[in-house]
């Protein structure tokens, strides 16, 4: 199929795919996150609530101190069963979590103060803290004897160890029924925003992300209360009625239109994404055409809140006919008009402010119709207030903590991974049984040559694709504008294909614009392949395609902008600081996750074919993403290796077996990745012609050194001596396996990922030794981490049916893909 024809198909199918997506949106609750912990405290059994499996403590092998016990509510009328049990602490105790991705997280603590024969949980008084912050002070849950109390916090957590500490007051005790900890979507909370005080407006409030936010109000205006089932991030939204001053003036407004979400992955408001709030919040509102409507929220005196106000014009049929004023504290006014943010209706959007409370402890919000508007109307769809919690001097930070005092529980990532698998599989099965519709099978079954926007054909994948990426086609004009007419000063990369420019789209999203030059190595085939592959898949560790342009015989691809450049830069460019061993491992783990997803996550598997450090990019948080899919191949469904007509790839990284047989398998990527691992360790290029002959090819040289047991000799001098020897050994073994001559002797990408994570654990010192070894370190030294071992079931399973079980951050959606494939096979 020629490029033109392909695009025509893409465009003609678009409305269909789009409608299919919209009609299925309501069923999606597949926010998939890398690190998540849902714990059913005080219980040995798992319990599922709204798609989350709260795992019993016994499956997590916590070792609780003697002063801790469990309680069970014998009164049958508890609201749900995570609230039937509680973990009780007679003295200070910390839950410890292992975090593999830095980011902004949600922490939810569930309290339900039931009474049992031995204790009355209403009488507990305690503090809850995390490093540097006191979350709850002299807290008692007596309000929760009728219905559960859920305290929710947002905070930044860095890779490594994270603890939540419960400190009972003298002669009292602490308890908790359930704990949630999961990462929020990128750019969910802004780092700085407009500061509005009672006395008028001030400058921006900066550094929000360094503080903790505590939910005080979350309101769905004009609609029903929203439960955690209907929210992708399991939030609850309450009714606005109790807060509305002049209820008689308000009319409710609701709609069942399709919302035009226009917020992108990387934009910080005002355009909402699907995760900003559930559809139901934007689809209902309260409005008035003549009176001002005011909502008042009692808050702590002298407190400061992040105020997020949600709008969506559900009634206007054209833009700029309805606009009105938003007032905060009657002294700050802002005009609200959809035309300022969008060209389409109804588009959900929101504004963030930081507000202080008035002298009486109130925050008052007013919407005031503007009589000069063609159709005067003022409305409000939703509102959130998150109290800003400052660091507390009385709480130790990450460094100062005293290990002896914490009877800590290490939740190793290995355990986490097995938990994730179960959560994903169980969650998916439930979803699958409940919602799968027959017409999707058809869509899944079609060859993706004819459904290029494959992301639209499956719920699980769609849920990863914000709407901005469904409209992939961009005009040449817009790209000219974005790159200042392809200004040479905006060039951030050059290659055989042409230049890569840094650009800014109209919506403020920063992008990398790759423009092929006529006669370049990137021909129409690569262009088409890349659009097909990238519009089909989305993953945290794969660079996202934002759009493409094929006007005027241009071939332009627009990607998310990767601020920190390529892995190659970080290895060789002196402008970048040398990466530590841990950072290097984290980058490799990220790239391995991306490749593993390519291989196992999509129908039939995708082979990258050009794995090398220039194709591994880092975003501003140093999250590694695999890029450049121009050469990639989709493996056929029957798992037969793909036989190519010409060997492609980059010399130095090329799988020798593929070179010999021209048979391409996923194991070719594993080989190339092995070379990358070696390069990361040694910081020398894969091919260096200036060296003695036996050293020119890094893979050969590395293999030789490893055989002689002198891998340590060739380590990059900037990290030499800083690597834990066990971590190095594991890493070296992994390289050795990847570089096996025979593809079948090489591990799968999933196994490589597993090994790298293990090497990272060893570097962190979380594990002292390999389980089968019994050498120097005494048992007393090793922190209990019972489940850290290679789970034989993982590789065994993948050998049985090649539907490898997933153990990375896209659990839900990968499970989804795997199962949809099984389904197709069944259907044949
Ligand atoms: C059991 O629950 C009901 C309803 O919540 C409550 O009225 C009753 O007091 C509870 N009994 C005990 C022993 O807590
Ligand atoms: C539990 O303690 C609270 C507060 O002290 C008290 O109001 C309540 O009656 C107690 N419940 C039982 C069942 O003793
Ligand atoms: C429990 O907390 C509430 C506020 O949430 C407070 O009014 C009450 O006095 C507290 N009870 C005790 C015994 O501290
Ligand atoms: C709880 O927090 C307050 C305020 O920081 C502190 O004064 C108190 O000692 C803490 N209580 C415990 C038991 O840690
Ligand atoms: C409103 O803000 C102005 C300054 O911006 C201030 O002078 C005035 O006192 C404020 N009014 C009220 C009611 O706080
Ligand atoms: C947020 O802003 C503060 C203050 O400008 C800065 O120190 C911090 O690095 C920023 N955090 C993020 C995640 O951008
Ligand atoms: C919106 O309409 C107002 C008058 O109602 C006009 O002054 C303004 O220029 C219009 N804005 C745009 C962007 O068209
Ligand atoms: C906010 O509303 C409350 C009533 O809910 C009122 O007492 C207070 O004066 C209002 N504050 C301002 C600044 O308008
Ligand atoms: C409604 O708000 C506007 C500010 O936009 C104000 O001028 C007007 O006086 C208010 N009306 C009432 C009845 O409070
Ligand atoms: C609970 O889930 C965990 C992990 O998801 C699993 O290992 C364990 O067997 C489950 N326990 C029960 C009782 O189902």
Automatic annotation (TrEMBL):
UniProt superkingdom: Eukaryota
Name by which UniProt lists this protein: Uncharacterized protein
Organism annotation: Bauhinia variegata (Purple orchid tree)
